[in-house]
Specification:
114 residues, mainly beta, 7-stranded mixed beta sheet, 0% helix, globular
Length: 114
């Protein structure tokens, strides 16, 4: 049974920072494409960033220069460092890992508000 355990969400003021973590209980973690998605109220889930062994690291345009995705294969963990946060970044953030199958975390709430 694959599990993804997320942590690091919370309430932050505009301009602040948060780091999300996602620990995955999969074998051979290094071969997986890992990513972060988010879903704001009333909106569809959207891709934020991912790391692929095939085509590297990609970001959605709205977070480029502010967010950084990284992975630690020794710890089976993927991170999302979020800086210069804006109210429009408010959403539930989901971790995703995929190879032949795709797995999702439970989601962690990020709220950017003064």
């Amino acid at each position: 049974q694959v599990q993804l355990v997320e942590s690091g969400g919370g309430l932050v003021q505009p301009g602040g920072s948060l780091r999300l973590s996602c620990a995955a209980s999969v074998h051979s973690f290094s071969i997986y494409t890992v990513g972060w998605y988010r879903q704001a109220p009333g909106k569809q889930r959207e891709l934020v960033a991912y790391i692929s062994t095939v085509d590297g690291t990609k970001y959605t345009d709205s977070v480029k220069g502010r967010f950084t995705i990284s992975r630690d294969n020794a710890k089976n963990t993927v991170y999302l460092q979020m800086n210069s946060l804006k109210p429009e970044d408010t959403a539930v953030y989901y971790c995703n890992v995929r190879w032949t199958d795709a797995y999702w975390g439970q989601g962690t709430q990020v709220t950017v508000s003064s």
